[in-house]
Amino acid sequence: MSETPDTLREPTFQQAMEITAQWLALWENGELSDEVLGDRVAELVASRDGARGFFVVSLAGDGPLMDRLPEPLLLQLRLAGAGVVDLTARNLAMSTAMVLHHQRAGDGVQQGASERVQARCTDLLRGLEPQAVKQRLETLLAATAGEGEDVAFLDRWGYDTDQRAAIAAAIDAVAEG
After folding, report:
1. pTM for the full model?
2. Terminus-to-terminus CA distance in the chain, angstroms?
3. Fewest Cβ atoms nearer than 10 Å: which of 71, 91, 95, 148?
């Protein structure tokens, strides 16, 4: 896929996943510096689909990026603002709920994968702008108790009482770190 300026400005979700995979491979091979990766990701996460594609690949993938988040990348994600905070909070909720789902199904491999995404989201949230994270997680926490604008988000995914309690505990864990 060619990377035109327009592709980077408003990539589709699919394009963003492909671009992210290419960049992470270059970064892992030492062909892309932390600073350049940070700058490129900043462009990508400026759009909602770009950010979604980046997080699908980086949070759920096997690569080491989100386990040893380079400071230049963390800085760019922090500067990206509320959109990145929102997606990371939602990914925390979804991965936490899926840990319980896979545990119930006896699927240890998928449970472990969801636990890894959950841990990566927790670590990332601790590195993002504290006030924005606090406000976003308070809204999500209220929804686990059946209140506020995120109730529809939790309802859409069909999370049960135990999953909502696990999400609340995961939110508390972010603050404890």
Report:
1. 0.91
2. 40
3. 71
Six-digit token pair at 51? 């950010």
Distance between CA 53 and CA 177 in Å, rounded?
A: 27
Q: What Cα–Cα distance (Å) separates residue 139 from each residue in 55, 128, 150? A: 21, 17, 7
Q: What's the pLDDT at 8? A: 55
| Phi and psi torsions of 31, nearest 5° | -95, 0
Confidence of residue 10 (pLDDT cuts 50, 70, 90): confident
Instruction: Provide the residue type at 80 as one letter.
Output: A
Question: Residue 132 corresponds to which amino acid?
Answer: A
Q: What is the pLDDT of residues 66-96, one digit of tens each?
A: 998 999 999 999 999 999 999 999 999 999 9
* Separation of alpha carbons 138 and 171, rounded Å: 8
Tokens representing residue 103 in the block: 């545990």
Overall average pLDDT of the 44-62 stretch: 95
CA-wise closest residue to 40 among 77, 92, 86, 13: 77
